[in-house]
TrEMBL record:
PANTHER family: NADH DEHYDROGENASE [UBIQUINONE] 1 ALPHA SUBCOMPLEX SUBUNIT 9, MITOCHONDRIAL (PTHR12126:SF11), NADH-UBIQUINONE OXIDOREDUCTASE 39 KDA SUBUNIT-RELATED (PTHR12126)
Superkingdom of origin organism: Bacteria
InterPro entries hit by this protein: ComplexI_NDUFA9_subunit, NAD(P)-bd_dom, NAD(P)-bd_dom_sf
GO MF annotations, alphabetized: protein-containing complex binding
Residue ranges of domain NAD(P)-binding in the record: 8-132
Name of the protein in its database record: Nucleoside-diphosphate sugar epimerase
SUPFAM superfamilies: NAD(P)-binding Rossmann-fold domains
Amino acid sequence: MSTILVTGGTGTLGRRVTDRLQAAGHEVRVLSRRSEQYPVDLRDGRGLDAAMAGAQVVVHCASSPRGGDDKAAGHLIAAARRAGTVTNLVYISIVGVDVVPLGYYRVKHRVERMLLESGLGVTILRTTQFHDLVAAVARALARVPGPVPVPRGVRVQPIAVEEVAGRLAELAVPVPAAGGRVPDMGGPEVRTLADWVRAYLAAGGGRRRRVVEVPLAGRAYRGFLRGGNLAPDRAVGTVRFADFLAEGGGRA
């Protein structure tokens, strides 16, 4: 069995990856700012060498839409080089980071390039948006009084975080993927964000709220309109958004 370091191991995705790896018998080191085992802030990298020492595989789940992912990746790459034992660094990315010019996506794409150019063995998995994120967006939009405004024409293909965690656990092996990337993962259904918001409202008893699609502007919006965030030919997820809602997912 391998010694595996999971960054962001206390987060929504990371803790599920950790559970699967531990169940498979691996020694798992949980790294995050809130970790009791390895409390490390990747933005400054202090304590990272101790966490990395002797690890064969790193599963990099830590991420922040507020920025700094590229700086964190730089610290992670440097520590993996110093350790000299890491043979596979597995990274979770997002479908469309190379075609949708959203700030967060651009940084994720920059991290991909940093990893591929690092000289380390890497495995990059891109997925569509998690059910949890779609529910969080719907919840935020529903806080607006009156009709619920939703970007017009934007389609989303949500996937269950549990399925992504399972795939990452499969990829957390000492041998990296050939070429550094594996096929994308997409959820089972592509529908407009307006449809997903209506489903969220209905599940919460908000059937009487009217959803209004509003056109936006900008290159990122046009990227979403073109479907850059979708992977319809890789609809490998099986858990539907309706299943997620039926189990109480996304409730505040």
